[in-house]
Design brief:
Largest sheet: 6 strands, mixed
Protein name: Uma2 family endonuclease
Distance between the termini: 26 Å
CATH superfamily: tt1808, chain A
Helix content: 10-25%
CATH class: Alpha Beta
Pfam family, one: Uma2
CATH topology: tt1808, chain A
GO molecular function: endonuclease activity
Structural class: alpha+beta
Strand content: 25-35%
Number of domains: 1
Number of strands: 14
Strand order of the largest sheet: 1-3-2-6-5-8
Keywords: Endonuclease, Hydrolase, Nuclease
CATH architecture: Alpha-Beta Complex
Radius of gyration: 16 Å
Length: 185
């Protein structure tokens, strides 16, 4: 990720985002352009959203979003997760930014993997409604689930090929293979 090398206020960032078709993420005054992903990256995110949709379709409390809606914490960051779910009614008033997600998923890319595993996870942990942070590999059938188990205590569970993935925050369980359906070698 390459940042625009001068400080931009959160208000300036949001104004820029409303005026441009190019998506950018914001972190503590720096703005980062988001590169496009691969077809497999997109397919994995769509498969996850499909599974969530099937599970939540009868729930009127929860909403799920793809990488086109921002997640924000105070004025520290604005990120575009690949998928996330919010069940908090406070997130219904703003069509562009959500602040109370309970689950966030990122599909790992070589260019973002280090940040997704490190700084971004540290940032997301500041969101008090977040219960699970999921990192999905494009290269192998591997899902790393970081789950809040107590006050400021995160447990990591790694799922591999043939496993059933459990998303406790949504009470959702599915086969690993469902996440990787339709990928090209």
């Amino acid at each position: 990720m390459i940042a625009v090398p001068n400080y931009i206020s959160p208000e300036e960032y949001l104004d820029i985002e409303r005026q441009t078709p190019i998506r950018h993420e914001y972190r503590r005054g720096l703005v980062y352009a988001i590169a496009g992903g691969t077809d497999n990256h997109d397919r994995i995110a769509q498969n996850l959203l499909y599974l969530i949709n099937l599970h939540l379709r009868d729930s009127s409390d929860c909403r799920f979003y793809s990488g086109n809606v921002k997640v924000n914490y105070q004025d520290e960051f604005y990120y575009y997760p690949d998928a996330f779910v919010t069940c908090d009614s406070r997130d219904r008033s703003d069509r562009y930014v959500k602040r109370y997600p309970k689950l966030i998923a990122e599909v790992l890319s070589p260019s973002t993997q280090t940040f997704d595993l490190g700084g971004k996870f540290t940032d997301y942990q500041k969101i008090d409604t977040l219960e699970e942070y999921i990192l999905i590999s494009q290269e192998t059938q591997r899902v790393e689930c970081h789950r809040l188990t107590g006050t400021d205590t995160w447990e990591t569970q790694v799922y591999g090929e043939g496993d059933r993935i459990i998303l406790k925050s949504l009470e959702l369980e599915f086969a690993m293979g469902e996440l990787y359906l339709g990928l090209d070698p």
